Amino acid sequence: MNNNIWSGNKVRLRAILATDWARFHNNDFDSESARLCDVIYFPRSEEGTKHWAENQASKGPDGDNFSLAIETLDGELVGSIVAHSCDTRHGTFKYGVAIFREHWRNGYASEAVKILVRYYYEELRYQKVTAHVYAFNDGSIALQEYLGFVQEGRLRNMIYTKGQHFDEFVYGLTKSEYEMLNR
Asked: Looking at residue 144, which CATH number applies to its domain?
């Protein structure tokens, strides 16, 4: 029996470790994956990535905002998840998830999101989660819909990449919708 709230059947969420730097550094070379999750940044040195990982490992949450590593139950680092824009007054937060390309389509992202959302709803009293998804990210759109998120809006021409502008979709899941899905 699993008694750890941060573990599921496939993955567990844990703090980012300084020793994770190499895996994150190698992932930085996947420009298409970076484009789907955020933006393509300028190249970072190994020292820069080591510094980033050390910083992540040494800092705690900023209020309820934090970044976590996603690893398989046998300890392989497969990605990361972040909770941000946490608003305790209104009970809302946003999340983002990134899975390293070789681990796509294994159910790791969906389980990581479920673990995160369960924690925020059942332990921190939040009542709504939102995800912003680029219109060209078919995998993320499918993930949101699989998890029961509802498309609430379309922000036109918000993302510029590959020489053109793209729309950004806003997906949301309320606590009551979450409870209905998890009966």
From this structure: 3.40.630.30
